[in-house]
Write a structure and sequence with these properties.
disordered C terminus, five-stranded parallel sheet, globular, about 200 residues, three-stranded antiparallel sheet, Rossmann fold
């Protein structure tokens, strides 16, 4: 089965460049800005944003990685055993402007979990959200400050973000989700869009 490509490698490169510029503009520079990528694919996206910013601003931005496994609200309902990976935040976030980075914004529940996790590390002056894809269907009042591409989807579709660092290529694909009658539901493993 194949999906439809909605972002190519070049589209992703442009979106990352645009978001990087918007972050610098909105924050009037980089003083106190920290990028924190949500595991799994938010981490390489945050690193790409930092590298792009470094290219045009000639200034490094601290980049961290956040694991939200223990903060998810669907663990009891789905009887999940989350795979816990390390959270690595290289600087104190108290009083900083944190830009949380993820690949796909969907229901907003993963972002809510990330907000809870971040607050355990300190009290930032502000938290902004950058996503490569906003696919709609919010269940919580959460919106992104920076969006690479708004991609309207149906509930029976899945957005798969593929990144060179994790998948060997850059591409965003919208795939149909199969029912149990048609076959297994698509992979719910690391890096799949937000649930």
């Amino acid at each position: 089965m194949t999906g439809r490509t909605v972002l190519t490698a070049e589209d992703i490169r442009r979106a990352v460049g645009r978001i990087a510029h918007e972050i610098v503009e909105r924050n009037r520079g980089l003083d106190g800005v920290v990028l924190v990528g949500m595991r799994t694919r938010g981490v390489p996206l945050a690193a790409r944003l930092a590298a792009t910013i470094q290219e045009f601003e000639r200034q490094a931005v601290p980049v961290g990685a956040l694991d939200i496994g223990l903060y998810r609200d669907d663990i009891p309902a789905m009887e999940l055993r989350p795979q816990i990976r390390p959270t690595e935040i290289p600087t104190d976030i108290h009083g900083k402007r944190v830009v949380l980075v993820d690949d796909v914004l969907y229901t907003g529940r993963s972002i809510r979990a990330a907000l809870d996790a971040l607050i355990d590390f300190g009290r930032p002056a502000s938290i902004q959200l950058a996503v490569l894809v906003d696919r709609g269907h919010r269940e919580l009042p959460i919106r992104a400050d920076y969006v690479g591409k708004n991609i309207p989807t149906a509930l029976n579709e899945d957005v798969q973000v593929l990144l060179e660092e994790a998948d060997g290529r850059d591409e965003v694909v919208v795939m149909p989700v199969l029912s149990e009658v048609e076959g297994p539901v698509l992979n719910e493993g690391p890096g799949e869009g937000e649930r």
